[in-house]
Amino acid sequence: DVKVTQSSRYLVKRTGEKVFLECVQDMDHENMFWYRQDPGLGLRLIYFSYDVKMKEKGDIPEGYSVSREKKERFSLILESASTNQTSMYLCASSSTPPAAFFGQGTRLTVV
Amino acid sequence: KQEVTQIPAALSVPEGENLVLNCSFTDSAIYNLQWFRQDPGKGLTSLLLIQSSQREQTSGRLNASLDKSSGRSTLYIAASQPGDSATYLCAVCSGAGSYQLTFGKGTKLSVIP
Question: What's the rounded mean pLDDT across residues B79-102?
Answer without folding.
Answer: 87
